[in-house]
């Protein structure tokens, strides 16, 4: 059973929509430190807010990040993903120029692919626990 605190309302609907997203760095290079991950979370929270979407959980490792997003039905998940990846890539490369050294001529932080899974079967508490237990590099 879903947690009732996650129920959201729109003008003409009531909804609980969560997606588990995973973004992998270009060439799976292990480039993120703890400071990078902290800044990525801030950037991604800001992008989510622009989409009226909640970033419920965030965590990552040196070469990938996990996001649990609570989104309204009017948001196309593919557009949210494109914005999350595009904005975070641009800002991270601006703020951390050393990241560019890992990507030769590609000039992209993220791989072109991503994982998106609807979260409905597993209780959110279990998914949150999984994301929280991902190791962050130091």
| Major beta-sheet overview | 4 strands, antiparallel
Structural class: alpha+beta
Separation, N- and C-terminal Cα atoms:
36 Å
Q: What string gives the helices and strands in order? A: EEEHEEHEH
Characterization of the model:
With 138 residues, the protein is an alpha+beta fold. It is 33% helix and 26% strand. Strands 4-5-3-6 form a 4-stranded antiparallel beta sheet, with helices on both faces. A two-stranded antiparallel ribbon has the order 1-2. A hairpin with a 2-residue loop joins strand 4 (54-61) and strand 5 (64-70). The N and C termini lie far apart (36 Å). The relative contact order is 0.25. The mean pLDDT is 87.
Give structural attributes:
138 residues, Alpha-Beta Plaits, two-stranded antiparallel sheet, 4-stranded antiparallel sheet, 6 strands, 33% helix, alpha+beta, 3 helices, single chain
Structure summary:
Residues 14-134 form the Transposase IS200-like domain. This is IS200/IS605 family transposase. With 138 residues, the chain is an alpha+beta fold.
SSE blueprint and pairings:
Layout: E1 8-9, E2 14-15, E3 18-25, H1 34-50, E4 54-61, E5 64-70, H2 77-95, E6 110-118, H3 124-132
Antiparallel strand pairs: 1-2, 3-5, 3-6, 4-5
Helix pairs in contact: 1-2
């Amino acid at each position: 059973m879903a947690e009732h605190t996650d129920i959201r309302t729109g003008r003409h609907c009531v909804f609980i929509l969560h997606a588990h997203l995973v973004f992998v760095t270009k060439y799976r290079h292990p480039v993120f430190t703890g400071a990078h991950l902290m800044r990525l979370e801030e950037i991604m929270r800001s992008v989510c807010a622009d989409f009226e979407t909640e970033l419920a959980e965030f965590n990552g490792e040196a070469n990938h990040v996990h996001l649990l997003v609570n989104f309204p039905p009017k948001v196309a998940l593919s557009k949210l993903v494109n914005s999350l990846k595009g904005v975070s890539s641009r800002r991270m490369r601006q703020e951390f120029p050393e990241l560019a050294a890992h990507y030769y001529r590609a000039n992209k932080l993220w791989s072109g692919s991503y994982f998106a899974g609807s979260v409905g079967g597993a209780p959110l508490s279990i998914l949150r626990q999984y994301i929280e237990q991902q190791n962050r590099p130091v």
